[in-house]
C-alpha cells in the first residue's frame, strides 16, 4: 500500500475539450475549460501549477515545471452524463447508453406514476429546470399536480412547490418513480426538484435529491468495502451509487459545503477512499449557460485548493477529475462529450505528463491496485508511474 488515504474530487462537468467522438454526440467544438478561460472571473494559478494547462490538448499557456502528475482522460462508455461518468470512474464502463426521452415519457409510465402517487402529471417534455418552474409553477400550485420533465440526459425529474406538496411527499414520489422506471425504462436518475415562491417568482430550493439506478455490478466502492477499507463519500456520490459500497457519507448542498466537508475528512484517521462530488459547476452554471459563474466557481476552488493540499499527509493522494463536460458557452444547456482532466497531487507523486488515457476506469484500477484489491477492470493502473 503506497498511499493510505486517497481523495477523489470530481469537479462536476469540468471538461477540457471535445472528445474524439464528440461529433457523434452533437458536441463538436465543446470546451468547458476554454469557454471559462474567456471570462474575467477566471484565475487558476494553483491548478496551473499542478499541471492543468500542460495536459494534452489544452491550449492555455502551461507552466515550465508542473508540481504534480497530470493526464487527459477520454471516456470509454456510451454516454455523457453523471451516472455513466461516475460509474466509469469507479470501474464500471457502460457500453449501452441509458434511455433518454426527447419526446417525453410514454403514457404507460405517466399513468403508472399517477396511479402510484395519486396526483396528476403536467409538462412531460424536455425542459430547462429553471424555465419549467416559471412556465408551469402557477398551474402546479392550482392543480396540485407534479411537474415531470426530462433533458438530454437519462433523467426523470419531478418538480413541486413545497408549499403545495410537502418535501417528504415529493421524495416518496421519487422513490415510487424509481420503482416504476425499470427494464427498458431504467433511467439513470430520478431527481427531486423542489421549488418555492420568493419575491413573486419561483426559485429552486437546496433540497434536491437524486434517486439513482443501482450499478449493475460491483464498483471500486463495493470492492474496497468488501476488503475492509473505509469508503467515505461527500456530496451526491452517495446518491449516484444508490447508497451502495459506502460506509460513511456527508450530503452537501453546494461547492462550499463540499469543500468544507472534504477538508474535515483530512482530519479523520482512515485507510481507504474519500470520494467527493462538487456539483455547482454543473447544476448552477453549466446547465444555465453562465460562463462567468462557472469561471468564478473554478476560481473559488483554485483558491481553496492550497488550503487542502497543505493539510495532506505524506501518504495521501489527491485525484482531481470530472465526469463529463457542460460547456456554458454553447447554445445547448446540456452536457457535452469532452475529455476530462486528471491531476495527481501528493508529496510522494513524481511530476510528469501521463499522456492521454482511454477510460475513466483507470482511476478505479489505480485505487484498487494501491490497496491490493483484486479486480477484473479491463484497463491499466497508473500507480507505478506515480
List the helices and strands and how they pair.
Blueprint: E1 5-11, H1 32-37, H2 45-49, E2 69-74, H3 82-89, H4 107-117, E3 121-126, H5 129-143, E4 146-150, E5 155-161, H6 167-180, E6 189-198, E7 201-204, E8 209-212, H7 220-226, E9 230-234, H8 237-240, E10 248-250, H9 255-266, E11 272-278, H10 280-286, H11 291-309, E12 316-321, E13 340-345, E14 352-358, H12 362-370
Parallel strand pairs: 1-11, 1-12, 2-14, 3-4, 5-6, 9-10, 9-11
Antiparallel strand pairs: 2-13, 4-5, 6-7, 6-8, 12-13
In short:
The chain is of the alpha/beta class and 386 residues long. The protein has helices at 32-37, 45-49, 82-89, 107-117, 129-143, 167-180, 220-226, 237-240, 255-266, 280-286, 291-309, 362-370; strands at residues 5-11, 69-74, 121-126, 146-150, 155-161, 189-198, 201-204, 209-212, 230-234, 248-250, 272-278, 316-321, 340-345, 352-358.
Structure write-up:
- With 386 residues, this protein is an alpha/beta fold.
- It folds into 2 domains: 5-94 and 216-385, Alkaline Phosphatase, subunit A; 107-211, Alpha-Beta Plaits.
- The chain is built from 12 helices and 14 strands.
- It has an 8-stranded mixed sheet with strand order 10-9-11-1-12-13-2-14, sandwiched between helices.
- α4 (107-117) packs across α6 (167-180) and α9 (255-266) packs parallel to α11.
- The longest helix has 19 residues, at 291-309.
- It is globular, with a radius of gyration of 20 Å.
- The model has no long low-confidence stretch (mean pLDDT 96).
Amino acid at each position: 500500500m503506497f498511499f493510505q488515504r486517497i481523495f477523489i474530487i470530481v469537479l462536476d462537468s469540468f471538461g477540457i475539450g471535445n472528445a474524439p467522438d464528440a461529433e457523434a454526440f452533437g458536441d463538436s467544438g465543446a470546451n468547458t475549460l476554454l469557454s471559462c478561460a474567456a471570462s474575467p472571473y477566471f484565475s487558476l494559478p494553483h491548478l496551473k501549477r499542478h499541471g492543468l494547462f500542460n495536459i494534452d490538448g489544452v491550449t492555455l499557456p502551461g507552466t515550465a515545471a508542473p508540481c504534480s502528475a497530470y493526464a487527459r482522460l477520454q471516456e470509454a462508455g456510451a454516454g455523457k452524463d453523471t451516472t455513466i461518468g461516475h460509474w466509469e470512474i469507479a470501474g464500471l464502463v457502460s457500453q449501452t447508453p441509458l434511455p433518454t426521452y426527447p419526446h417525453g415519457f410514454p403514457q404507460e409510465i405517466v399513468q403508472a406514476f399517477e396511479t402510484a402517487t395519486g396526483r396528476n402529471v403536467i409538462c412531460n417534455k424536455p425542459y430547462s429546470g429553471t424555465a419549467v418552474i416559471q412556465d408551469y409553477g402557477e398551474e402546479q400550485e392550482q392543480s396540485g399536480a407534479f411537474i415531470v420533465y426530462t433533458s438530454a440526459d437519462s433523467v426523470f425529474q419531478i418538480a413541486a412547490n413545497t408549499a403545495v406538496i410537502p418535501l417528504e411527499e415529493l421524495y416518496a414520489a421519487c422513490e415510487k418513480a424509481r420503482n416504476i422506471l425499470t427494464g427498458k425504462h431504467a433511467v439513470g436518475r430520478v431527481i427531486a426538484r423542489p421549488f418555492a415562491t420568493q419575491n413573486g417568482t419561483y426559485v429552486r430550493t437546496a433540497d434536491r435529491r437524486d434517486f439513482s439506478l443501482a450499478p449493475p455490478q460491483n464498483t471500486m466502492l463495493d470492492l474496497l468495502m468488501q476488503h475492509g477499507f473505509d469508503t467515505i463519500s461527500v456530496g451526491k456520490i452517495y446518491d449516484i451509487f444508490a447508497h451502495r459500497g459506502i460506509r460513511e457519507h456527508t450530503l452537501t448542498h453546494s461547492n462550499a459545503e463540499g469543500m468544507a466537508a472534504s477538508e474535515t475528512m483530512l482530519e479523520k484517521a482512515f485507510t481507504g477512499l474519500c470520494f467527493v462530488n462538487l456539483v455547482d459547476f454543473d447544476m448552477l452554471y453549466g446547465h444555465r449557460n453562465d460562463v462567468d459563474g462557472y469561471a468564478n466557481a473554478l476560481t473559488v476552488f483554485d483558491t481553496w485548493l492550497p488550503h487542502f493540499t497543505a493539510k495532506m499527509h505524506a501518504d495521501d493522494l489527491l485525484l482531481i477529475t470530472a465526469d463529463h463536460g457542460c460547456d456554458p458557452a454553447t447554445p445547448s444547456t446540456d452536457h457535452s462529450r469532452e475529455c476530462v482532466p486528471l491531476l495527481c497531487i501528493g508529496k510522494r507523486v513524481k511530476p510528469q505528463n501521463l499522456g492521454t488515457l482511454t477510460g475513466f476506469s483507470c482511476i478505479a484500477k489505480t485505487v484498487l491496485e494501491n490497496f491490493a484489491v483484486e479486480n477484473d477492470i479491463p484497463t491499466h493502473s497508473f500507480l507505478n508511474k506515480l
